[in-house]
Amino acid sequence: MLFWHLGATIALARYAFRDDRMDLRMLMLGAILPDLIDTPIGLIFFDRLQGVRLFTHGLLVASIVMIGVVFFTRRGRPRKLWMPLAIGLLFHLLLDAMWLDPETLWWPFLGWSFTAAGPATAAGFVAEVLGDWRTWLAELVGLVYLVYLWRAADLSDTQSRRAFLNNGRIDVPIDG
User: Fold this and answer.
1) 52: number of Cβ within 10 Å
2) Residue 113 — φ and ψ, nearest 5°?
3) C-beta of residue 122 within 8 angstroms of C-beta of residue 46
4) d(CA 71, CA 131)
5) So what's the pLDDT on residue 176?
6) N or C: fewer beta carbons within 10 Å in the chain?
């Protein structure tokens, strides 16, 4: 799910941290990175892995990234740039309800295997996901929030869009 992870992660981060200077580009990368890595691997090796939520859907990777950011960046600009990546990874796990899949969430501490998705084939898995109304509802919720931000930040304007692409910030107040 693309729009769900992007929209919901931005909404949660903006309202939880109330940081209008957070780099949303890195936050968005963190929000979709587990799917960008695990889904292709899971689909290619579906007959063996039986799922697409693999190691980047666990706390180990998110923790390593968070610890790396804390230990290898100084306070200030470098940390401000990289911390949203770690936050996005953690929000991805939250939005995927990974607590319902402890074998994957705690991988490799509960074993080396991941929870099977259910369908026997990658095509069956894709059909199941695309046929689930909850997938489409979540995508719609995320898309609605992203459209709201696009309009509120006037990203149709070339200068506003260029500013966002350069610094990762939007000029939309975070309501109290």
Assistant:
1) 23
2) -100, 160
3) yes
4) 43
5) 54
6) C
The structure tokens listed for 116 are 């099977």
pLDDT of amino acid 76: 80
The whole-number pLDDT of residue 30 equals 98
DSSP 67-130: HHHHHHS-TTHHHHHHHHHHHHHHHHHHHTTGGG-HHHHTTTTT-S-----SSSSHHHHHHHHH
Residue 75, token pair as written in the block: 């306070």
Residue 45 carries which DSSP code? T
| The residue type at 170 | I
pLDDT tens sequence across 78-112:
888 999 999 999 999 999 999 999 999 999 999 99
pTM of the model: 0.93
